[in-house]
Amino acid sequence: MRRRLTRRDFLQITGASVAGATLLGSAGCVFGSDQGGASGAATTIRLGRIPAAQAMIPITEVMREEGLIEQAGEELGLSISAEWQDFPQGAAIRQALTSGQLDFGTVGNTPTLIGIAQNEPIRILSIAEGRVKFVVAMPADSSIRAPEDLQDKRVGLIQASDLQFFFDQTINSLFGTTSYDDLGIEVVGLETLSQTASPPGGIDAVVATETSYLRGQLDGLITGLLNSYGFTEEHYDGSLGEGADIQLPAVQDSPYYPEGFYLHRNFWLVTESMADENPDAVVAFLVAEQRAVERLQDMDPTEVARLAQDQEFWNLDPEVGRQIWLNDLIHVRGWPWLTRGDLRAVVDQSELAAQSDLIDSSLSWDRIIENISPVAPLAQQAWETIGYPEEAAFTATDTEDIRGLPLWQYEEWETA
Length: 416
Prior knowledge:
Layout: H1 7-14, E1 30-34, E2 43-49, H2 56-65, H3 68-75, E3 80-86, H4 90-98, E4 104-107, H5 109-117, E5 122-130, E6 134-139, E7 154-157, H6 162-175, H7 180-183, E8 186-189, H8 194-197, E9 205-209, H9 210-218, E10 222-227, E11 237-238, E12 241-242, E13 265-271, H10 272-277, H11 279-297, H12 301-306, H13 318-327, H14 329-333, H15 340-355, H16 365-372, H17 376-386
Parallel strand pairs: 2-3, 2-4, 7-8, 7-9
Antiparallel strand pairs: 1-3, 4-13, 5-13, 6-9, 6-10, 11-12
Helix pairs in contact: 2-11, 3-11, 5-15, 11-17
């Protein structure tokens, strides 16, 4: 087991000087800091995250350790006490938000669209992480060497998750269908990400996050066939050649090209009550998130990965884990502000969710705008406070990611 990152380690890595003490916590624990310097009683905000996340981990570690929410609150005349909690998965965070146990929480597409579909009191606020690399992997000695070899095989994945949505959209691009029956594919439901790093017996292939894939690869348990960016992995041997980093022609027909086969986004959600009753605290959170990103952009990627190297997080050597940060949307952009392009992930994947009976019907753009419009002015205030990026960055087209007009310009969004 790797030694847990201590506060001294953190300050050495980031070069930060932080007054006051914060307590590091393990999964399921509450850990916080109360560094508010404004007069009056502190406003306590409760934030939930998932330790198995990827780029969101170093971002939140910096936010917590440097007391960035508290500092931003002071600038707004608030005394804020931030309490952080770890949860096993997004569904638990969504439930904690709707039951009043959390004020902010980070979740993936599925909990987000289910919450909106069920009219739960939550608002989509910002990007927590995105463009995560997903990999179709298999045991190291597998005879699966090309996409067509997946036909008539047993594929393990966590159902009704980003992993399944990625797989469905990938086979649709490759084979023109999302029907497992047509391809002879038997999907086997997995319960944990650790199973994707070490596939159970009888599973021919798995769908894994980059973190799980790297763990399994280092242990010699799995190898990769293709990834969500539309490129081959090391085990590929087919008509295009052999090995990794060959672009699959089918990705160019994806609706999310050049980003890849799949549009992945994880969001920060905020409760309606927090946004309505403590808008300055919401602004403070957004300012703090951007400042954390700026701190990380100034660091060597290996040092960023060191913030997430512990067993309950990435559990990877920083020299390996650095690639997770380099691939992430927030690193690529340098900012976490929401754009129309990001929310396509919710609209588009709600169609798949409706087909799978996760929700009654897909979500329209009007429904999304209804959800985000109350927090749009708060996001604009935070962006104006930071002054980054310039407006042109939101609609830039010479990028590797899907973006668009920012949250606060929702009235100008195309909704067709």
